Amino acid sequence: MGVPLNQAIKVGTYVLKQHLTGRKRYPLVLMLEPLFRCNLACSGCGKIDYPAPILNQRLSVADALEAVDECGAPVVAIAGGEPLLHREMPEIVEKILARGKFIYLCTNALLLEKKIDQYTPHKNFCWDIHLDGDRDMHDRAVSQEGVYERAVAAIKLAKAKGFRVSINCTLFDGTDPARVAGFLDTVNEIGVDGVMTSPGYAYERAPDQEHFLNRQRTKELFRAIFRYGKERKAQGKTWKFNQSPLFLDFLAGNQTYKCTPWGNPTRNVFGWQRPCYLLGEGYAKTYKELMDTTDWDKYGVGNYEKCADCMVHSGFEATAVVDSVKRPWKLAKLAIQGIRTEGPMAKDIPLDGQRPAEYVFSRHVEQKMAEIHAKPQAAGAAE
Ligand code: SF4
Fold it and tell me: Radical SAM core domain: from which residue to which, for each copy (predicted)?
């Protein structure tokens, strides 16, 4: 298992406590996006096409800590944009760790060698390196040659310095499962602590709209990958995933899950994103406002056209974690039998009642631009 025992126990206890106190909606992972600016321009990214004045915005240390305190999630994933471009990132990390949280700092690793000595290894801190497969797959995904080699060198450096390192691997249509299996072998041999994998979400603003997976193809792809996983296991090799086994079982088409969009609430330079990490359909000023005023029933597979193909971990991992805590026997069965890769798949949620997509993206961009022009001094700490 790629998740350390202390984290599994702390998160499990937290979920149990929420359940026992009858709390219906609670966060598991805060998705903190302190900036949208990046030093890459990946074809599947839906975050970097904002106008320059918005890309120049940063969440301050105080904003970041307020978000952590307001929502109370036990885990914080720091994403972006590229977080290592934020000059106050070491202070943000140090102060979040001091609050007893677990941190995954997501990075493309291009700046890791230069900045690594600003950070100290900690049992609750993990570098989460973006690698979408082997050299060709990754360099194609990030639209730049040589990035894979630099990321692998950074992973080795981080491991040598005593850090925990995981991989964040997004898969797209046309992916060859045999190559993914080879990639998982490689990162295992390098000694990474776990891999987080997921199909890409079809961001409406991503430059490449042709390579997103639909639900059926996602399930077929993961079944094919897990078949290779079984072969490797028979040879005594085990891939380490940073995800709950039931989420992986869901990816293989064996679980019917609704998403838990409030499980990974997202705070970025616009505010608290409604309804989830993947869809930006409005923003709330506070976490409480997000939770109290979002019409959650309007979203999710079967409810909304933009959700139809979503199987992303930020939406469904929380569902799987809660299911694991409420029904531990499902986990035990999975541990004994492994992920089923043959036979019929679990029934999927029907889409015939879903409401059509709304395209509201430009509204909050216009609003933010007007705010920036009105108060240029509020632009924050740009590096
Ligand atoms: S299915 Fe859920 S997590 Fe996925 S985009 Fe829709 S609301 Fe967000």
Answer: 20-232
Query: What is the distance of C-alpha 164 from the center of its chain?
Result: 17
Share of the chain above pLDDT 90, in %: 82
- Rg of the chain in Å (alpha carbons): 20
In ligand 1, the atom with minimum distance to the C-alpha of 301 is: 1
Computed from CA positions of residues 9, 11, 14, 18, in that sequence, does the dihedral angle turn out positive or negative?
negative
CATH superfamily of 5-374: Aldolase class I (3.20.20.70)
Query: Ligand 1 centroid vs 279 CA: distance in angstroms?
Result: 7
Q: Tell me the β-bridge partners of 30.
A: 76
- Whose CA is closest to 272, among 21, 4, 32, 13? 32
CA dihedral 320, 321, 326, 329 (to 10 degrees): 70
Ligand 1 probe mutation, 204, 212, 310, most atoms within 8 A of CB: 310
pLDDT in tens, 250-274: 999 999 999 999 999 999 999 999 9
> pLDDT confidence of 381, banded at 50, 70, 90?
very low
Q: What is the pLDDT of residues 194-213, one digit of tens each?
A: 999 999 877 766 667 677 78
pLDDT tens string 293-333: 999 999 999 999 999 999 999 999 999 999 998 999 999 99
* Strand locations in the chain (E): 29-32, 75-78, 102-107, 125-130, 164-171, 194-199, 266-268, 271-275, 280-284
Q: What is the largest CA-CA distance in the chain?
A: 63
Pocket of ligand 1 (CB under 6 A): 259, 261, 275-276, 278-279, 299-301, 307, 310, 312, 315
Q: Where are the domains of the chain?
A: 5-374
